[in-house]
Specification:
The protein is about 55% helix and about 0% strand. It is mainly alpha-helical and about 290 residues long. Helix 1 (about 20-70) runs antiparallel to helix 2 (about 80-90) and helix 2 packs antiparallel against helix 5.
């Protein structure tokens, strides 16, 4: 038997302590937990990229539809609806999710107002609801007024122009703009043929249905953007709530935090994964912010 003095180095002949089963199990648990957290962050990161692309496409689609109806149905002679659509899109703050430089927008102002109210010990939720309700109402009123404007545009400008037999003047735009696509206009055998038609048929022939349909499409897309950004995003005070489904949360491009919880809502049985579940029924409820 070999003896060693207390505090001396171990003798060369002593065998090392073998690894225990407990330490191996602990390492396996730690590795599994690390891998699981990494996979969750990857899921959220990929979802955030898809969401940014989705918001960018919906934002671009608004401008495409507004420009299309201006050229196709209004013959480049109706600028007011286009200007209204551009202004309303700025208030929806899509650039916060599609651009790296979006420090100056309406949502930034709302967040600053919320922080100031919290610093002054004022509950910011009632104030935020007032802002959100005004924006929601503005979207509906804007769409209604634009539709009325388009009806008046067709009834009081296009139809009198057609009654005079001067529809050929708007084939390539008007004095507002000159277009090069050659807008399609109704062709009649004679002026009397057009005058004999009833008023509803005249409005349909001159593109009123296409105008109102595109207005409705723009309204629907803007409601989707409003719901996504103002109610379901991390940029909004209403979107930063606990116990919400991850697939219903719109994140900023740089908001993939390590504490984010990737739940089963991100798992899709289809090959194409979901980007965002939009609760559109909330945006359709005009009494949403009265609760």
């Amino acid at each position: 038997m070999e003896f060693s003095m207390p505090g001396s180095f171990p003798m060369e002949g002593r065998s090392p302590i073998p690894p225990t089963k407990i330490s191996e199990d602990m390492m396996e648990v730690v590795n599994d937990e690390y891998l699981e957290n990494f996979q969750k962050r990857q899921k959220i990161s990929r979802k955030t990229i898809r969401q940014s692309n989705l918001i960018n496409q919906l934002d671009s689609l608004i401008y495409i539809l507004a420009g299309y109806q201006l050229i196709k149905y209004c013959h480049s002679a109706s600028l007011i609806p286009l200007v209204v659509y551009v202004i309303s899109q700025k208030f929806l703050c899509c650039d916060s999710f599609t651009s790296t430089d979006s420090s100056d927008n309406f949502m930034t102002f709302l967040n600053q107002t919320e922080r100031q109210n919290q610093e002054n010990n004022v509950d910011p939720e009632p104030i935020m609801k007032v802002f959100f309700k005004k924006i929601q109402q503005a979207i509906y009123w804007k769409s209604l007024l634009v539709m009325i404007y388009h009806i008046g545009f067709v009834c009081f400008w296009l139809i009198p122009l057609a009654n005079k037999g001067k529809l050929n003047l708007v084939v390539n735009g008007t004095w507002w703009f000159v277009s090069f696509i050659g807008e399609t206009i109704p062709i009649y055998e004679s002026l009397d043929t057009f005058k004999d038609r009833n008023y509803i048929t005249k409005m349909m022939d001159l593109g009123l249905v296409g105008l109102l349909f595109s207005d409705a499409m723009i309204l629907l897309i803007q409601l989707i953007l409003f719901q996504s950004i103002y109610i379901q995003s991390t940029l909004s005070p209403m979107g930063r709530k606990l116990n919400g489904k991850e697939i219903e949360l719109l994140r900023l491009p740089n908001d993939v935090s390590t504490s984010a919880a990737a739940d089963e809502s991100l798992d899709s049985p289809d090959e194409s994964p979901f980007a965002l579940h939009v609760r559109l029924y909330e945006a359709l409820n005009l009494k949403l912010f009265d609760q």
